[in-house]
Amino acid sequence: MEVRVQNVRKEFDRFPALHDVSLDIRSGELIALLGPSGSGKTTLLRLIAGLEMPTAGKIFFGDTDASEKTVQERNIGFVFQHYALFRHMTILENVSFGLKVRPRSSRPPAGEIRRRALELLDLVQLSGLEKRYPNQLSGGQRQRVALARALAIEPAVLLLDEPFGALDAQVRRELRKWLREIHDRTGHTTVFVTHDQEEALELSDRLCVMSQGSIEQVGTPDSVYDQPTSPFVFGFIGESSELPVVVENNELWVGGRAIGVPAGDAKPGKARLFFRPHDVELIEADASLSGVVTTSRRVGGTRRVELAIGGEGQHVEVDLPFDHPAGEKSRLAFRPRRWKLFPAA
Amino acid sequence: MSTAVSTARRQGWSFRRPSVIPGFGLTLGFTLTYFSLIILIPLLALAIRSAGLGPEGFWKAATDPRVLGSLRVSFVTALIAAGVNVVFGTLIAWVLVRYRFPGRRIFDAIIDLPFALPTAVAGIALTAIYAPNGTVGWLFAPLGWRIAYTPAGIVIAMIFIGLPFVVRTIQPILEEVSHEIEEASATLGANRFQTITKVILPSLTPAILTGFALAFARGVGEYGSIIFIAGNIPFVSEIAPLLIYIRLQEFNYVGATVIATVMLLLSFALLFAINLIQAWSRRRYGYGN
Fold first, then answer.
1. How far is CA A136 from each of CA A142, B279, B285, rounded to the nearest angstrom?
2. What ipTM was estimated for this complex?
3. By the 8 A CB rule, do A87 and A134 touch?
4. What CATH number corresponds to the domain at position A279?
5. Percent of chain A with pLDDT over 90
6. What is the number of structural domains in chain B?
7. Last residue of a domain, one of A194, A215, A235
8. What is the largest CA-CA distance in chain B?
9. Maximum C-alpha span of chain A
10. Is B189 an 8 Å CB contact of chain A?
11. Is residue B281 pLDDT above 90, yes or no?
12. Are residues A304 and A331 in the same domain?
């Protein structure tokens, strides 16, 4: 089901949580709402679910206006960060709950409910645990039960609120891969909220980056990563280093030295240069960024070097292979291979 | 708690569990001494005293019609009062936890007053209000309903003193039951009624049972407030604690201890059963850990 969020605004007691947000979610896609805490991503998800009502604007499910519909009528599957399983019910009862509470006219027969619930438990790889209670499962298992429970009602849209937020790193990675598989198999339109950019990049078809109650950028993970449209997105998605520069004569200058990076069509004056720490080349030329190594530490397969550049001692980070000979030096000169220039704030 | 239970199961029963805090012997010794002095010895004395009659004499004293009548009045009214308290106590706890309104804190503090008020004061106040010419009683008088000086009055007094127990046991658990499970229930299509009956109330059951047990126990043991409102007619509105007092005044100490022992046994059996149900549900659902 296609979901259209149209000029939605949400205020909590006069405090604006979302300003005029519009977003088109395509049928069958897996889209991530990504942003720091307080960016409004969870609010947007809850508005789509109907757990909150917008102050202004509309939300469409397909062609029907869902804005006035209650949560129950919207037929959505919602997965909470802390699972929100019913502790007094067995796993099987949890999964069948959504079907059992339907009015008699649309409720499948008991045998059918049971069959479907067991099928879903099989899908989430929890066969054989149907008689257990949530209390007896691990966090990862609980979240899988929560997903099976949400899928049981055949939701129009599947909404996940930081679904892996409460799990440890290894389980998270596993579940991430597994959620992708489930999505590919079932094809539900899925929206998930996360503050973990790695999770969003790996899992989603499209990303919607949010900040301070607005959408900053929407696009595929690659396009958002490669062509961030704002300093915020560059800084938030992936690693980044920032340096204040001056544009003059179609070149970038730092501390009165040209650094060998063309300015393109940027206007003369002050600007902010962004690049990825791993996307640099070390060179031995005058026209380069050179700085004094202030710290250097190995992180797994790379060495992260922090440099102080220019007279004002700006700090930037650069990644080298951990066994690169330059890692031993006290001075480094480099040029970013790819970069992005934004006007100075 | 659940981990303690599961380790105990795996390793079988063990007398001593390793702990980082030393002093197991000391604390257990203290606990047992204290427990003996305060609870065990008085209760034992009671049992020994009443056992002086021999089994036959005990049975005869215990099955005396007036004793049976008073026990019936005590236990039936206490059960009714605890039942009423569970319903309205849950409601009050719900309102206090879920809603924000002016005066909520004051209201919250008032709940505890029955704990603190001398029971005789409560009894006299209730009698004054519910007597046929009282503030509330006159409303019912034309209908022919008498509240004070009947078993209904006993129930009212027991409701009064038992209410805080129910509210205070349910309140913290209700705060713990997250708002999310209500939302989860709603997203799955359950309406408000289904959410309450199928999701919220079952998760409160252990707390409700505890509240019921406490209110019941308090009601059975209550004396001060009830004797003012009850009317104290044998076989109708004479409670067992009052009969004990009457026996004492007749210098029939053994008779008094017999009634007390029977009351204790009955209460203990009921409370123990409720505790078992609770322990079972806690182990299973993991509430209250």
1. 9, 16, 9
2. 0.83
3. yes
4. 2.40.50.140
5. 44
6. 1
7. A235
8. 68
9. 79
10. yes
11. no
12. yes
Mutation target for A interface from B188, B201, B277, B285: give the one with most A CBs within 10 A: B188
**Which whole-number Å values give the CA distances from A49 to A26, A318, B164, in the listed order?**
16, 42, 39
Count Cβ atoms within 10 A of the Cβ of residue B35 and give its class: 0-12 exposed, 13-18 middle, 19 or more buried: exposed
Q: Which domain holds residue A220?
A: 3-235
Flag whether B16 is in a domain. Answer: no
| φ and ψ at residue A343, rounded to 5 degrees | -60, 150
B188 contacts chain A (CB < 8 A):
yes
The verdict on A127 and A227 lying in the same domain is yes
Q: What is the 3-state secondary structure (H, E, C) of A3-43?
A: EEEEEEEEEECCEEEEEEEEEEECCCCEEEEECCCCCCHHH
Task: Inform me whether the C-beta atom of residue B183 falls under 8 Å from chain A C-beta atoms.
Answer: yes
Tell me the CATH number at A103: 3.40.50.300
The model carries a pTM of 0.79
C-alpha B153/C-alpha A268 separation (Å) is 91
Q: Give chain B positions within 8 Å (CB) of A153.
A: 188-189
B15 pLDDT tier (thresholds 50, 70, 90):
low
Looking up tokens 């909470």 gives A80
CB < 8 Å to B199, chain A: 86
B212-238: per-residue pLDDT in tens?
Answer: 999 999 999 999 899 998 888 888 889
Residue A117 and residue A153 in contact, taking contact as beta carbons nearer than 8 Å: no
Across chain B, the runs of DSSP E, i.e. the strands, are none
Other CB atoms within a 10 A radius of the CB of residue A34 amount to: 29
- CA distances in angstroms from A186 to A124, A130, A143, A190, A202, listed in the order given: 12, 21, 18, 10, 19
Round to whole Å and give the CA distance between B92 and A170: 44
Q: Can you give the residue range of the structural domain that contains B115?
A: 61-285
Query: Does B280 lie at the interface with A, CB-CB under 8 angstroms?
Result: no
Structural domain ending residue among the three candidates A235, A265, A284: A235
Same domain, A13 and A134: yes
Closest CA to B187 of A87, A57, A141, A159: A159
Q: Give CA B257 to chain center in angstroms.
A: 22
**Domain count for chain A:** 2
**A33 plus A137 within the same structural domain:** yes
* A231 and A166, same domain (yes or no): yes
On chain A, the residues whose CB falls within 8 A of the CB of B178 are 82, 84
Rounded to a whole number of angstroms, the CA Rg of chain A reads 25
Co-location of A19 and A74 in the same domain: yes
Task: Mutation target for A interface from B1, B9, B187: give the one with most A CBs within 10 A.
Answer: B187
Looking at the fold, whether A252 and A338 belong to one and the same domain comes out as: yes
Alpha carbons A345 and A242: distance in angstroms, whole number: 13
Q: At what angle do helices B151-176 and B65-98 cross, to 10 degrees?
A: 40
Other CB atoms within a 10 A radius of the CB of residue A43 amount to 23
B2 contacts chain A (CB < 8 A): yes
Task: State how far the Cα of B247 lies from the Cα of B137, in Å rounded to an integer.
Answer: 32
What pLDDT does residue A141 have? 92
Mutate to test the interface with B, among A86, A96, A149 (most CBs of B within 10 A): A86
Same domain for A222 and A270: no
Instruction: Measure B285 CA to nearest chain A CA, in Å.
Output: 5
Report how far Cα B284 is from the mean position of its chain's Cα atoms. Answer: 24
Question: E strand or H helix at A44, and its extent?
Answer: helix A41-49
Question: Which token pair is A116?
Answer: 């479907």
Residue B67 lies in a domain: yes
